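Late entry, evening session. Most of the bench is empty. Finally got around to the prediction I had been postponing all week. Sequence below, unchanged from the version circulated by S.P.
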Amino acid sequence: MPAPSVAARFRCVACAAEYPLAEARTACAACGELLDVAPDLASFGFSGAAWRDLFDRRRAAPGSPETRAYERSGVWRYREHVLPGLDTEYLVSKPEGATRLYAGGALGEELGLSRLFVKHEGENPTLSFKDRGMAAGVTWAKACGFPLVGCASTGDTSAALAAYAAEVPGMRAVVLLPHAKITDEQLSQALAYGATTLGLDTDFDGCMKIIAALADEGRVYLLNSKNAVRLEGQKTIGIEAIHDLGWAVPDWFVVPVGNAGNVSAIGKGLREWLSLGILDKKPRIAGIQADAADPFYLSYQGGFKERITRVAGDTAASAIRIGAPVSHPKAQREIGFFDGVVERVTEAELLDAFALANRHGLAICPNSAVALAGAAKLRREGVIKKTDLVVVVATAHALKFSGTMAAYHRGAGRLANPPRRVPATLDAVRAALG
């Protein structure tokens, strides 16, 4: 079939070689490095004010259950900046995005962050930010006629891939998972949506090597974050958060780092909006890792002179248990451009932040809690100021990690709230209530 029309090309992040976007390509043929999607946004001829007006009008447009899904999507609201010029007949949407930006309130005050906001990506259809990326990635697979899509996953990617592939007649999904290293809630999603689900006796990095080899053989269209098109959907997290703030630019975006796709995507979207005059200032970006899986932090500590990898250890933040981040070069670029920092937190710090956020009614996952704990740590160290406007990106919903939550509250965590068994009498209940 003919290649779909789109005003963008692949461009190598290292040598700037360019390739047609319709090629199933995840690396540069000349030097082997990662690719960016390079959109021709200037061709629209819009000023920054005109772009803001367009997006404001789309956001304000009344919707109903009969409205086409893409018109209610927080990804396709910005469609000219995701896959510019692509005919809307190809757009796959559930719809995704348009997630809430929660004011931190008492949670922020407890953490010393008086202007804290949390962008809750766990409110996407499969309960994680990965839906934004799959809206773009599966749309492009549909437009190009790729029948088999696949990924390696620590849980959330597999759920999103399976759900979005299920939207396209004739498309199949295959997911490779590290056996017994994701939650039952995450595993059940891939199964329920009909994906061919293979548990391998290895970690995420081992799964990634195998799915990448299948992609190189042309057997599957790869939709991990190594696929630059997928990251175009994820970049809408940052730009939508700024839209949520009435076009106010935060002082900080604080993002959990596993495969480093979100730091890469959010930074790319912000850079594009700066170049178009949509934004009037540059925020800073903080990438946060768990102690057990901290290769990007270790690389940052060494001034990025060496790309460090490691075998990731056990952590409750299982979705970011990755020892060789695929998007490292892109994330390094964004940390540099946005005068960013990289920090890490302990297991106790992330679990306490997980419990604290949920105690305040904010149902975020342990991976999101890594970013929240990191923001609090950077505040204690004086890197983030009390009055800085801070957006923490929460990547998934707490309900994907109900086992982790129950174990915490039955254990010795600082904020543990264990269930108590009492006799079935009025006096016993009165006594329990104090």
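Two things to note before I forget:
The longest helix spans residues 130-144.
The chain has 15 helices and 13 strands.
Will write this up properly tomorrow.
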